[in-house]
Amino acid sequence: MSTVMDSAAGKGRNLGVNTWLVVLGVSVLIFGLNTGYATWKAARLGGASSSASDLQVNSQKLAVQGQEAVSGDAAAFAAFKETRSAIVQDVEQLNANFGDTAGVSGPIRTVTETWGPLGKSADQVVASEKAVLALAGNADSFASRVPQLQARLDELVRAMSASGSPSSQVYIALRQVVLSGKMAERITQIRAGGSGAALAGEALGRDAAVFGNVLTGLRKGDAAFGVTPLGNSNAIAALGQAETLWLEMKKDLDAILSSSQNLFAAQAAAESITGGSNKLLTDSQGLFRAFTSFGSVRSTNPIGHILVSIVSGLIALFAIVFLVVSLNSQQKKRYLTTKELNDRNQEAIMRLLDEMGSLAEGDLTVKATVTEDMTGAIADSINFAVEQLRSLVQTITDTSVQVAASAQETQATAMHLAEAAEHQAQEINSASSRISEIAASINQVSRNSAESADVAQRSVQIATKGAGVVRQTIAGMDSIRDQIQETSKRIKRLGESSQEIGSIVELINDISEQTNILALNAAIQAASAGEAGRGFAVVADEVQRLAERASNATKRIETLVQTIQSDTNEAVSSMEQTTSEVVAGARLAEDAGTALGEIEKVSSDLSNLIQGISSAAQQQSSAASNITATMNTIQSITAQTSQGANQTAASIGNLAQLAADLRRSVADFKLPA
């Protein structure tokens, strides 16, 4: 009956605790939800104010980045797209979160309406990115080649002037230089945009057509432009280089003209963004002020949220107090129940310890009482362990007797083996000494043979080195002979060239004599002309003096050429005699090389024989050393065997002693009869 009442009371207490836990959880949940909602509202309002502030900055950034982007700046395009995406995101979030909120819906609608056309213009700028960047690349490529084209055209103008081309044709070619610079300027105007960009595009097309037609006319002729074909080879070559370069530049020019309309559209869209950005800035500022006022009004009415938080906090506090009181009551009841159970377990443990007192003194005949208390399972396990211990002690006693008997027999056998091993070690030591003496004699023979082999090997090396030196000498003599022959040929060619110089000198001498005669005739003609020919007479005198100087110089050159021819003939004779002596020296070196080769062969054969003797002696020495090492190993093994036998005998004696000690250690246990 008491147990049923305690169970009912426990259930009642658990129900009270659970109830207060539910109340505490609900109050904490309400407090958290209320705080989270207030925080969310504040963050949402702060995000909207931040979006309105970002719109003010991004409206101006979009205008600047748009102008930079349509000028061909790839980085500006990337920044422009990022700014546009930020504006779109801010406008969409403001409409989604506060589009229907009184006080801010009007400014949001105004900003959205202002952004509508600006967004379309921004989309148009983004869509033209590929075309604008391609046009910028073509323009840069064209501009980088303009200086090269102008350099080729300058060469063409110089070649035409040098070849005596008509001044009108030279002017046409010179105008091409100016026209190439104008085309570069018009491309710059197109990229800059503005009202003159379209006119610059039309003018660029006309200039390109005129430039190409003039280049073709310079090669083939063109009556419409008054151009005649070139006849000078240098001018034609310069024209070809200019035409090749123009063909590459024409590709960039055609691409610029074809995509210029896309650029004009993008520039117009960028201008539209620039014009509307101030309106968007003004509307964004109004939106920011509206959110600032809206936040101030909402922040002055937080009573509802604070009241909910206070009420839920008080309820949670009361729930905690009652929960602590209930848990304290349950803890006291649990303590009393646990104390009663511990007293019963202590009594059973003391009873088991009293029964096990005899077991501690070595009495293996005792048996613990098995009950239904906590110690019942322990007593059963102790009885099983005692039974196993009795069996173990009996086995140890029987085994120790057998081990002691076997150890005595084994000890006697080990002592006999130790004596035999010592006698064997003495015999092996004597045989090892005799083998060591034989090995020493063989080693001496091997060392003498090795020294003889080294001497023979050095002889071979010296003979080989001598033969190599002789071969190098022969090669050097051959090289000297070839160089002397080559030098002789060159000296002969020098003599022949000097003869040609003599012929040229004779020609120059004839020219100077004729020039002198012509100068005299000119002087006579100038004298007959009177005062009008005085200036020409001065020139004729100067020409006559130059002719005389040339004649004197040719005479000196003729003398030098004759001297060179004489020295060349003597050098050729000397070279031929030296070549004969070098050939004789080479033959003697070859004979010496043959003799050294025979000496090298005999020395090599002698070295091989001595090395064979040395190798045989070394093999015998190695075999003797191996035998000695084997004997030493056998001697070491025998010594180890003798030592092991003695140690075995001692260990077996120890084993017998351990068996006796083991038997004495279990003698104190009391076993059943």
Describe this structure in words.
- The protein folds into 3 domains: 2-123 and 297-324, no CATH class; 129-266, Four Helix Bundle (Hemerythrin (Met), subunit A) (Up-down Bundle), CATH 1.20.120; 378-665, Helix Hairpins, CATH 1.10.287.
- It contains 11 helices and no strands.
- It has helices spanning 2-70, 74-98, 105-127, 129-162, 167-192, 197-220, 233-299, 303-355, 357-360, 376-529, 534-665.
- Helix 10 runs antiparallel to helix 11.
- The chain is flat and about 180 Å long.
- 17% of the residues are buried.
- The model is unreliable at 1-12 and 296-304 (pLDDT under 50).
What's the overall average pLDDT, rounded?
A: 74
Helix and strand run: HHHHHHHHHHH
User: What is the domain tally?
Assistant: 3
Number of helices: 11
- What is the CA-atom radius of gyration, in angstroms? 62 Å
Question: In one word, what is the shape?
Answer: flat
Helical/strand content category = mainly alpha
The biggest sheet, with number of strands, parallel, antiparallel or mixed sense and barrel status, is: none
CATH architecture of the largest domain: Orthogonal Bundle
Regarding CATH, which class of the largest domain?
Mainly Alpha
pLDDT < 50 runs, ≥5 residues: 1-12, 296-304
Helix content: over 70%
